[in-house]
Amino acid sequence: MLPPRQQPCAAGLQTSLSLVSSDLHLSPDAQEPRSNSDNIRESPTESASSQETWPTADAMMKKKMENDKADNDCPGQSIIRRVSGADKISCRDIAGERVDIISEKMQHLPDDFLDELKNGLRVMLEGSGGSQHREEFLILQKLVHNRSDLTAKTLIRAHRVQLEILVAINTGIQAFLHPSISLSQTSLIEVFVFKRCRNIACQNQLPADDCTCEICANKSGFCNLCMCVICNKFDFEVNTCRWIGCDLCSHWTHTDCAIRDGQICMGPSFKSGAGPTEMLFRCRACNRTSELLGWVKDVFQHCAPAWEREALTRELDFVSRIFRGSEDPRGRKLFWKCEELIEKMKGGLAESTACRVILMFFQGMYYAKHYINSPLSFSIGRIFKH
Fold first, then answer.
1. Upstream peptide bond of 375 is cis (omega within 30 degrees of 0)
2. Where is each Zinc finger PHD-type domain found (predicted)?
3. I need a surface site. Which of 172, 280, 324, 341 has the fewest CB within 10 A?
């Protein structure tokens, strides 16, 4: 589960579609990960400086009235400014040319041309153009990553749209080009130089919480509040078994990543440290283990009644995969119960009935004393108290 700082997402916005592998998001020393989110929350509260770079509703209305007046005064004259071939710039120009030169040119270009430039890059990031768009984006990203002159000092001189395009190319996240996203010039620069989380719904200064662990110190742009310590991606799902949070070090891991990398496996009982083994999660950030049975029970007790049919099926599948290799009798019983309910729901079993059955199953498993001191049992309390 993601930290409680993540908020509900705004409908209709798509935060990311990075078209390249995370290996291409590399600084000289460490990976710069990409995201895989499809939704974002409302734009975060910005500093006063952001109001200086984005028009207010009053300013937009005033501009419209001025344009309408121009139409009335000069009915035979088009107000659309034609941009000559010599004046036009492209995303390649922005990616490869000096910041001050491009900024000066963009000062004299009409807004509709700049909007068209941003929309073209957004389409490219969406990937609807197939391999041609992918190849063009790879060229743009290579141009940006190979430059040493793109620093916080030089980017201060960038045109607003120029900076948005550079950030979108560098991160592979199209949300920075969306008209509803209004980040300050300073925030955009900090995202570009890996001093601020590129997750628009997070936006914390990096390293988050001044974490000094090896992952936060060595992975450029990594945020321990919202990114997976294995794949370095973020998304906006909360109240789910999709994410496992470690309360010992406050880092997060995708369940799928943990399973794939062997971070979920059988091990000695968390509390006793000896005797029968059970299914455990080992956090890559701190290398400490936490038991999973009590954590799954907590997630379902708090969240399952609110899940719709598709969500409940997905969560049962997550739990099934977590405990598929369990050698502990309780873990095996949970695995088979999840498999049974998934099949019955495919056959038409109502989600309310399935939810009631799995909750009764958890209630019938006596392990309260065993999981009460587990770190993962506390992660649920942290999520739901916010």
1. no
2. 227-287
3. 324
